[in-house]
Amino acid sequence: MARKADRAGTYAALAHPEDRRDPSRRARVEVEFDEQTVLGALFGEFDANLVQLENRLGVYIAARGNKVQIEGPDDAVARARDVLRGMHQRLLTGQQLDSGAIESLISMSSEPTLEGIISGDAERPPIMIRTRKKTIVPRSAAQIEYMRALAREDIIFALGPAGTGKTYLAVAQAVSQLITGSVQRLILSRPAVEAGERLGFLPGDMKEKVDPYLRPLYDALYDCMPPEQVERRLASGEIEIAPIAFMRGRTLADAFVILDEAQNTTREQMKMFLTRFGQNSRMVICGDPKQVDIPGGPNMSGLNDAVGRLEGVDGIAISRFATSDVVRHPIVGRIVEAYEGQEA
Known about the structure:
By secondary structure, the chain is of the alpha/beta class. The protein has helices at residues 2-14, 17-21, 39-43, 48-57, 74-92, 99-108, 114-119, 141-152, 166-180, 206-224, 227-236, 267-274, 302-310, 330-343; strands at residues 26-32, 60-64, 67-73, 129-130, 135-136, 155-159, 185-190, 239-243, 255-259, 282-287, 316-320. It has a six-stranded parallel beta sheet, with helices on both faces. The chain has a three-stranded antiparallel beta sheet with strand order 1-3-2. Helix 9 (166-180) crosses helix 10 and helix 12 (267-274) crosses helix 13. The model is unreliable at 1-21, 112-123 and 195-199 (pLDDT under 50).
């Protein structure tokens, strides 16, 4: 009972004063869940997930068995209902539900298509990427359009700050297509450019020398595929990870090709990379135009030059992410905003 009183106090503090004076602006809805085995995970330990919704949307939520009653301003109630349904659907499809996932659903709940995105409808299937280890759904409004572009366009430029899922979603889409046989190879590449430090001489063979630069790509791979499958496909050549300099002179056919940290390519490197495109291939070029580490800064970046030349060309999509689309810990978005605001 103590917790219930606290939550009621939370709603009273968050609700808009006009809503308390004018009951007609308030709404009350009840959501019933048929599948009860996931209700514990849905509500969270000590109903922590429901409290998160209350605090973020300014509503009051009461759970009774498999029924949840939501009360508050009508627009906030509608958003809370859609987010709860999205949370339930994630659990039914075997996905994890943590505070970050809930925060992402809340941020997308202003989109009128949220329910269709999560569960699909008669005209359009749900937006998701299936890999060996997990099913991935969009966690921000920008990711919705990006995932659609990954499924249909030949060349996609993904621009924006770290933590927005640009590279991770591209790797997930590539793994999905490799598993289904849509492509025969997965090629991941990055420019070997130090981000402000000098690594000096690195011992070992060529793979050992370039691995430190390509570690984020390995991390994304291992998150989408079992480790033994990653190692087997790396050994067979189905998955190839190499610095961009190794792309010269090749034609990349029947392949899903990803270039990460593309802001650190020169104009010549970017032109060379884009012209490797072959039959039945797909390319994704990821980068943050504001984080250029090559001499000359943004004016010399091959990514910035390519986007300026190719925007609007048929078959090429450009997805832009902002700090509000950061899907790591919420503090990451605030850190990016603080740095960008100071630089501006």
